[in-house]
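Cast an eye over this sequence plus tokens and walk me through the fold:

***
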Amino acid sequence: MDILLKSLLGGAMTAVIALAAKRGNTLPGILPLFPLFGFISLMIIGAKNDINAFRETCLASAKTLPAYVAFVTTCYLGIAVFPAPVAVVVGICVWTISALVMFGIT
């Protein structure tokens, strides 16, 4: 039941972004920064009642901000060269590489 609730929250946020896109371009760009997925991950980790695990998750989330900026910057620049779906896929690749480098996984 817990996973169902979280998936409904994610679906609701997707619907809100789609509806906001009909009214303009700024709000759909701001909404992904709403901490919905951070909320979900912190609630899952928080259910363990382990303060250190909770704090570790917070720090890991904060470390992804540069990767998100790399993703958005790549999409911003890529749209001048590629169609939107390709620009987003390239942005996701840059995000993945950035995250792997930041977390020392490469």
Notes: The chain has two domains: 1-63, 64-106. The CA atoms of residues 79 and 85 lie 9 Å apart. The mean pLDDT is 84. The two ends are 36 Å apart (CA to CA).
